[in-house]
């Protein structure tokens, strides 16, 4: 209000002063040149007033608009960092909102160090479970029916005693999200060789409520989260070893019910969710074992439609043996893309989406054989999503820096402690850069590489 009112008053009072000065000199006859000089002087003075008073106000207002636009762009960037439609909530569950520094000229990571675990891990995930500014870890152990929360701290060491909880089985798949809208991280998980889905709700202090079980008719294997029915509430899909997909509709209060199921046409090995055709329904991409040849791994997307049905589109040739899949916006066009690693051909296929469910491909050839796990995130702070790939029987991670158009810079190598089979990222210390965590060879420790960018 003051920005629009005060300048107007200032201009009006200045104009009055100019009128008074002009009247004061009308008592004598002015020459033509004097009149011209007075008129020019008036225009020059008015121009100075506009420059000094009005322009800064306009610039300030434009700056406010730019800040808003920048804020909206930043939120869009954050939204793209996850694979589901509800990425802003899930991202807030995974890490605090940060203001990174300028982009790094050279991406570097500190030498890795380890943190010993209670038992051998089977699965690892990130979330903000106690509401502070650090990313926490949830570890699901291999043989013991136990999960452990390791709370993040200033130096990325996860020092201190973790929080252990006994579960009803060994977890084979889990997703972190806010299922009841209270801004706290909850967990959806599948037990190994079990018929059902389990959900526990977090209270924001690192503790969880009682476990709620939702039975399925099939042997559950994998879980993914998204808005699959377009009601702006998080739903869950459960993929089974018997090649079925069960859709659990969420009610926004942490409760679910199974509404439909359909055949997948192959044993699922990995699943990620994302919106591939720009509608209001979350789709999913899956790697599965080929029914006709158990040694082949294919990749497909399943597009979700308003009537609750899913339509498959195959992405990946069956002779490539897909091993890992990630979903992000790799070419910065606001459409979700897919990265799939090929074990046979030692490459990564970047499948660029056009927002209507169609894709084009480009290939990154890898310097090492046996790509096994992939992770994606903006590791150098330039708002482009980079790739990190681990290799079978190797201590090295391959890091590919994104140019922002879906093409990637020649890889750099990050040394880990022991031949990782799990790979995640998060902000684990105070520098507001994405760090890397991988598992040790026998699963009894984690290897931490802090980003020194």
Automatic annotation (TrEMBL):
It comes from the Eukaryota. Keywords: Membrane, Signal, Transmembrane, Transmembrane helix. The chain crosses the membrane at residues 36-59. Pfam families: FG-GAP_3. InterPro entries: FG-GAP (IPR013517), Integrin_alpha_N (IPR028994). This is Uncharacterized protein.
